[in-house]
Design brief:
alpha+beta, eight-stranded antiparallel beta sheet, two-stranded antiparallel sheet, 37 helices, 18 strands, disordered N terminus
């Protein structure tokens, strides 16, 4: 009994820690003005009147602004009230001030109606969100939003009923403008969060998405123009005598526009990064992206993985914006960029309808397939189904009003709908029909063409999400062969669930040398668990190679990869190295949100700074009490502090919040084992296995718990299931061998220990047991 509980408890305490320094609070150098190089959009108007006129009334030009009586009076007059669940919001104009009365938090922290002033506006169409002031330099975004087309107010969360005190309520951190909105709705924002006072001193170069959001700081250019544009013509440099002597006889000096040395021409890749910096679901590494920088030097990109943020074929499901799906497409792989289809100043398509797609699909673009729309669509020419975008860029409505096109350019495949519930454009439109009806039509129209690689890739990813071990071989193939780097990165991320297989470790290790930072970062993320613990000469070669690669990636040219490698090596990272500095900057930048506070806590936990870890993890739980991950991390800390019962309490709350998470039930089982509650241990581990039948660690520990409880038959059956689920893990057959030996089933014990040693010929326990069994 004690042995089983000890193994269970040790698995909870798997942190190998080393002393280290705490990251300092961010320091803002008052003498260094990050906005000094910005001139403002007004300085562009005189020379770029056409472009300025397009931009000024565009969604970029109106991305954020101050409340304007001329534009916003209709939203507040006459007074009206919106009810959504238990939330009630009244909008009105009082003494010339636009006010909102909404369910909020009073000074004593209790829920109560509060009156706030509308100060700024985000967006112009199809909805507008109003910003209101809050203590600590904050602006908060209201849930109640205005539809200018219908002249009505609505709640962006629809039927959700978010309460005051919750992370996602308009008073919470999830609706905080400084952290969640400002960067993409303004120019060169610096959040300037002060963790000591939990406050902001947010600054920006210009309110709204200005010219310099996309062109970069242009004050040097403006100043150069002022010097060199004189009296309606360009200032000429005196011609050097030697230049005159070299001209052919009879040639005179020609008037020419001098070259502006302040201008830097962006590559198409740099321009794409500038679009992606805002049009992506991503995590911020620096909060200091400037046009011309690389996306991966400032962000981690959210891509299709084990979560349901994207569908397995890459279609957007959650609010994922456009960048990821575009990177997943054949269009991007063929070299197409945003500005090939969108006017960068107006923000609108350069052509309307199918004319936009046919700009290239007549064979005019290199390697683009030639398409005859009339023959391809099988729809009436004037119908919505005849539009390329209807089938290949289906729309999803977000925020109750905002319909957005999917930029994955996927192929409608109703067979995937039937197999994995992946939506298809056919049934999105023909809502009165089922998938079988759509399958019949596409099979008749396109036949064997439907059985394409994209279908197989979607199947592989869907199966991987379901925990199907058969998907592993497919993921390895996608990682090695797919022509689209994003899908290689997706496969690398999903292969992180198979680190018990040396072949997977080797493939991920090789992927860290890929030319695309996105792939290297995903591979490093999956290899991260292998960096934990101390080095050992007895460690299998693939593990040693993986650790070596994670150390080498500390010097990767991409900040995204360096930070990922630094996090993997957080127990022993040199804080004076570039990777160490990058990691600290990342941690500090995100410390104002629950996820960032949780990560800061885990950082201190790894560095054996338990008091600091407790401070941050308590903040994470308090800031988002209805989220399970902070409670999970806090439970680990409590266990390390010897507060086992408190750890159990946090994990019980975590499984209440997210009862379908097998990993949480598994950890609760370990916590119960630590406080010697064997019946609860077994029940929690059984629940984990019920939620995830191939959860190897849950099966392994459940088998040990059964053995400790005297249920040997169940123990052997469960460990056999674990061995089938993880045939490359030597610890499972070793555990079986010990149980067989205890049962005096020596032949089976020898067979099991030999399976252990076939996997790891240096397994100490296995070698010792083999000597006993001979």
């Amino acid at each position: 009994m004690v042995l089983g509980l000890l193994i269970l408890a040790l698995e909870l305490r798997r942190w190998a820690v080393a002393p280290g320094d705490a990251p300092a609070a961010p320091v803002v150098d008052a003498a260094a003005d990050p906005h000094a190089g910005f001139a403002g959009s007004a300085s562009c108007r005189a020379c770029h009147a056409t472009e300025f006129a397009k931009w000024e009334r565009s969604h970029h030009g109106l991305a954020e602004r101050a409340v304007d009586p001329k534009l916003d009076a209709a939203a507040f007059e006459p007074e009206r009230t919106l009810k959504a669940g238990t939330q009630q919001t009244t909008v009105r104009k009082r003494e010339g001030i636009f006010e909102v009365v909404a369910n909020g938090l009073a000074d004593d922290g209790k829920a109560a109606p509060v009156t706030v002033k509308a100060e700024r506006v985000i967006g112009v169409s199809p909805l507008r969100q109003f910003l209101v002031g809050a203590p600590g330099g904050r602006l908060q975004t209201l849930e109640a939003s205005y539809d200018p087309h219908k002249n009505e107010w609505f709640n962006v969360y629809g039927d959700e009923d978010r309460k005051p005190g919750e992370w996602g309520h308009w008073t919470g951190r999830g609706m905080n403008w400084n952290a969640m909105c400002a960067t993409c709705h303004n120019t060169n924002v610096r959040k300037n969060y002060d963790p000591v006072n939990d406050s902001y001193r947010t600054t920006m170069a210009e309110a709204t998405v200005s010219c310099e959001s996309c062109h970069g700081p242009m004050k040097g250019h403006v100043d150069w123009q002022k010097v060199n544009w004189k009296g309606g013509e360009w200032k000429k440099e005196p011609e050097k005598p030697e230049a005159r002597s070299q001209k052919p006889e009879g040639q005179t000096a020609q008037s020419a526009i001098p070259r502006d040395p302040t201008l830097k021409k962006f590559s198409r890749a740099q321009t794409l990064s500038s679009c992606g910096a805002c049009h992506a679901r991503r995590g911020e590494l620096t909060g200091a992206f400037v046009a011309g920088d690389s996306f991966d030097d400032h962000h981690w990109l959210t891509i299709p993985d084990h979560t349901d943020l994207f569908y397995p074929d890459g279609q957007v499901r959650d609010e994922d914006y456009e960048y990821t799906s575009f990177l997943s497409s054949k269009m991007h792989a063929a070299g197409v960029k945003c500005i090939d289809c969108h006017d960068p100043h107006a923000g609108k398509p350069v052509l309307q309808g199918n004319a936009l797609c046919m700009k290239c699909h007549t064979g005019s673009y290199p390697n683009s397939p030639i398409i005859d729309p009339a023959a391809h669509t099988f729809h009436q020419p004037t119908s919505a189904g005849a539009l390329c975008t209807s089938c290949h860029m289906p729309q999803t409505v977000y925020m109750q009003r905002h319909s957005r096109h999917d930029h994955g350019f996927t192929i409608p495949d109703p067979l995937l709908t039937k197999e994995f519930k992946i939506p298809n454009a056919c049934n999105r439109c023909h809502t009165d029909k089922d998938a079988d009806w759509a399958i019949g039509h596409v099979d008749k129209w396109y036949g064997a063409k439907m059985n394409r690689p994209t279908r197989e890739r979607a199947r592989i990813i869907a199966k991987a999400r379901q925990g199907d071990l058969a998907a592993k071989a497919g993921l390895l193939k996608v990682l090695a062969e797919d022509k689209v780097p994003l899908w290689r990165a997706s496969a690398a991320g999903l292969l992180g669930a198979h680190l018990d297989d040396p072949a997977v470790i080797a493939a991920l290790t090789a992927a860290t040398a890929h030319a695309e930072a996105l792939v290297r970062e995903a591979a490093a993320r999956s290899l991260t668990p292998l960096a934990e613990g101390s080095d050992s000469a007895a460690m299998p070669e693939p593990y040693q190679q993986a650790r070596g690669v994670l150390r080498r990636l500390l010097d990767d040219p991409s900040r995204a990869v360096r930070v990922r490698a630094a996090w993997a090596n957080r127990e022993r990272i040199d804080l004076k190295s570039q990777a160490g500095k990058d990691l600290l900057a990342y941690l500090n930048h995100n410390a104002d949100q629950p996820g960032g506070a949780m990560q800061m806590g885990v950082w201190h936990l790894a560095r054996r700074q338990l008091d600091l870890a407790a401070n941050w993890l308590q903040k994470a739980v308090a800031w988002d009490p209805n989220s399970a991950p902070p409670r999970d991390a806090y439970a680990v800390l409590l266990s390390m502090q010897g507060k086992a019962e408190a750890a159990v309490a946090q994990l019980k709350e975590a499984v209440r919040i997210d009862p379908n998470d097998a990993e949480l039930w598994f950890k609760l089982g370990l916590a119960y084992a630590e406080v010697r509650r064997p019946d609860d241990t077994i029940r929690a581990l059984e629940t984990a296995v019920a939620r995830a039948p191939r959860h190897v660690r849950a099966l392994y520990n459940l088998g040990l718990a059964y053995e400790s409880a005297g249920e040997r038959g169940k123990a052997i059956d469960t460990l056999a299931r674990a061995e089938r689920a993880a045939p490359g893990d030597p610890q499972v057959p070793y555990a079986l061998a010990t149980i067989y030996r205890s049962a005096n089933r020596l032949g089976e014990a020898r067979a099991a220990v030999m399976r252990c040693l076939q996997i790891d010929r240096n397994h100490v326990g296995g070698l010792q047991l083999l000597q006993v069994l001979r």
